[in-house]
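In response to a reviewer's request, we include the raw inputs and outputs for one of the modeled complexes. The two entities were modeled together in a single run.
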Amino acid sequence: MIFDIKKYAIHDGPGIRTTVFFKGCPLHCKWCHNPESIRTSPELGFRQSRCIGCGQCIEVCPDDAISVVDGVITTDSAKCTQCCKCVDACIPAAREIIGSERGINEIVDEIEKDIMFYDSSGGGVTISGGEPLAQPDVLCALLTECRDRGIHTTVDTTCYAKLDVVKRVRPLGDLFLCDVKHLDDKIHRKITGVSNELILSNIRWLDDSGADIIIRMPFVPGYNDSESNIKALGEFVSSLSSVLFIELLLYNSGGREKAKRLVKFVDIVRAKHAEDESVEAATRILESYGLEVKAGSYNE
Amino acid sequence: MNERVSKLRQQSLDILPYISSERAELITDFYQSNVPMQVSTPVCRALSFKYIMENKSICINEGELIVGERGPAPKATPTYPELCCHDLEDFRIMSTRDRTRYDVCDQVKQVYEERIIPFWSGKTMREKLFRAMTDKWHQAHDAGIFTEFMEQRSPGHAIMDDKIYKYGMLRFKERIAETRAKLDFLNDHDAYNKDQQLQAMDIACDAIMTFARRCEDKVRQLAKVETDPVRKAELLNIAEVCKHVPANAPRTFHEALQTYWFIHLGVISELNTWDSFNPGRLDYNLYPFYKKQIDAGELTKDSATELLQCFWIKFHNHPAPPKVGITEEASGTYTDFALINVGGVHPDTGADAVNELSYLVLDVVQEMRLIQPSACIQLSAKNPDSFLKRACQVVRAGFGQPSLFNTDVIIKEMLYNDKNMVDARTGGPSGCVTISSFGKESCILTGYYNWAKVFELACNNGMDPVTGEQIGPETGDPRQFTSYDQFMDAYKTQLRYFADLKIEGNNSIERLFANEMPSPFMSVLMDDCIDRALDYHNGGPRYNTSYIQGVGIGTVTDAVAAIKCHVFDKKTVTMDEMLAATESNFVGHEQLRQTLINRTARYGNDEDYADCITVELFNAYLDVIDGRPNTKGGKYRVNLLPTTVHIYFGQVCGALPNGRLAGLPLSDGISPHQGSDLKGPTAVIKSAARIDHSRTGGTLLNMKFSPQVLEGDNLNKLMPLIRTYFKMDGHHIQFNVIDVKTLRQAQEKPEENRNLIVRVAGYSDCFIDLGKDLQDEIINRTEQKVF
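The model returned the following structure tokens for the whole complex.
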């Protein structure tokens, strides 16, 4: 189940890349930047800006979930069964199905289209999500096919998966972008819904295996930007041996905007944007552990 | 920049361009004298040029190091009534419209009313040209199927090579004399014509030397009364420079720049040549002077920079002469398309030609931030990434310069166009994107060709739906067509018919300029005019190429794809429904329009369905134009660039099956139709690379990035994007690095955004000077937003 293939992805690893987004994530980070990636099943999306008010969707909806409220086409999420019949009827493409099953070869053919750009830039494919490790069979098949076609592979993961999945994927990935949200397990549970134990132990396993790793932490003011957390991150990463660098992904409010496009509600908080000074302070702390730090943007 | 440069630059920016009647008066004086009746046409043209250079006022600006102005002062813009004559309505419009305004004082209007207009009425090249064209040509021209370049300006598009830095005018005079001495009046029935042509060239050499001497005199006068000893010394040095060049070959970096500038002024005073005139590969041509003087300690990097900056300001002092027959809406431009090229390869060896001066020129481009001269890099696989990176940094500064050209494919294009390897490597692009072999070629852009209008005629059995006139051949009612191929046959028949019409017209216009408006000074500069004793307009140059510029490949691909997909492949829409929808401008057909927009493959997304149509359209265009002979011993070639004509061409077209509404702009260059490309820059590049660029004389690909995409290390990902396009034989790419918000703000508050420069199409312009429709067009071009 994937929900997007993005070309000229320039924030997901080295060079020019194509990023394939898997749908479904075991975490629910409060600020999630890709809220459409959380659920494992296809779901209905609606972009108000594209709607021309033709009403075709109202006619085809078998559940009477769509109506005009205050002159605007509105979908009642309680009534909507996500059958997505309205999507086919929506010619302006305001309604979309987010998430679909696609054949491995079809996906890799699309990825391969940009192979000249990967070659010239040292790029390749990045599998992101959602959580790619949550669909290990698809992931392994995809990575194997990319490898066979000579494409550099990167896995962007929360590392929240069983160890044997990590072990299966490890030899197929050239680079791992491992997300760390918080080092304090209690807080981690609070802000992502799951424990960080598995995450940290998987990262250690990957590190022991000698995999190339980039540690990425979303930098979300008020949630994980405390000095103690940054120090804990520094301590953790400096204890690893095959991390190339740390990347701080600066929070922006795009996730909340995207959540509004989902017919089924997903709760995404609005956090503050990081101040330059606090990013610099965090960078200095991490550097004091002898780590290389980059500040970057999210993949979206 | 230092205080001198900053002052000169500000002065150049602050003065509003204005019309000077000086040249018009001088040329009228000359043509009213008995001289034109006494001499041959080439000699007459040479003497008129000399008369201007002997009598025009000499302007030396305070503090400047490179001297000479075309008009009496910076931004004073002359007119060329022998080519086309402005009327009082032109003056009224140009002096009162909001954008690209030119001041016209009452005295100029009076001179025009009393002397210039009465004398030139009926005699201008523009009028002669229009009289020479057939009714069918006029019909097609008026319908907006093609435009004609030579109704406004004279054939030009010429670029200088290194010869003026090796030889002075005195040496050119010797060569002219040698050729004259060898003329065989006994056996060569053209000997008289050749002799007249050579005499004319000789007079033209004198004319430019006279002008330099007059500049020298004026500088010495100023030096005499100058109280500041530093400036006095400078003036005396400038006087020495003007004394030496262009009569003799330059000896220093300063003299080399001044040499070019004198030559430039000569070309743009003799005639109003298209695309001004171009120094070409400044870094390559000037490096020997730079290196020699740096090594000798006679020049520093700073002093060289200052000289280059002064040189830049001279270009900026010279806005494009405004057109005639202008309207309130038509957006003009101050930029005259002079282009400075850096990078490329060595002509003899093909080795990397990037040098220290290449980087210095890029520094100057970034610091000067002027709309003209424009700058480009010629990038070969042999040029280092550090050079590309520096260029990308300047691109990131966000004013559309430099544009990026692929030297390796340009060499292929040149070889395809019958040039030898050295001449192929000597050349590059000029003006917008069109290539020529520098110093050796007359490559003439003759007019734009509206593919969308041809498509519209194919949909209407040759009838123009706007006027109801039958202007094309009857290719059948498309409602009766049963296959896609039948439709394309109709399109190709229309395409050939109007290509023939355009070429027929061009053949007459070429003769008109060869016979009546020779260009002896330009002929001195271009190999092999002296050896052949033939004019620049008459096959004198070593290479003579004519172009008809195709416009609308993106829009027409999408329109054809819509017909192929919905009418012939899926059969979900009948041709009748499709044509009814476009005829009504989609009123009452919004559902269909949305289907066409959202459920049709479109160019720019790296999809075979659409891109194969692009290739078919391109090959169809090649078929009707490429390789056909012109009247100068050269051939027709195609190129795909729009400048701003995609706006006008859109205005004359009704709604199209790609969902585009009537009157809206067409796609520009080989860029996708506005808003059609949804898969990002790599997909656009791959679609654009599908056509065979090596069989063109240039293509133009515009991309717009918001500044964030190029922040920090991201620049390292722009470079491989460019390299990959070029590896796939892409000809040219340019970037607008600006966000939509900025543009909208500028639209609302023009006065606060006078400095906002955007890349339009092959050139950069002040955003606020563009017409509203063009502004909107730039805003709407798909922003390649990447996160």
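As requested, we also summarize the result in words. Chain A is about 30% helix and 20% strand. Residues 2-40+99-296 of chain A form a domain with the TIM Barrel fold (CATH 3.20.20.70).
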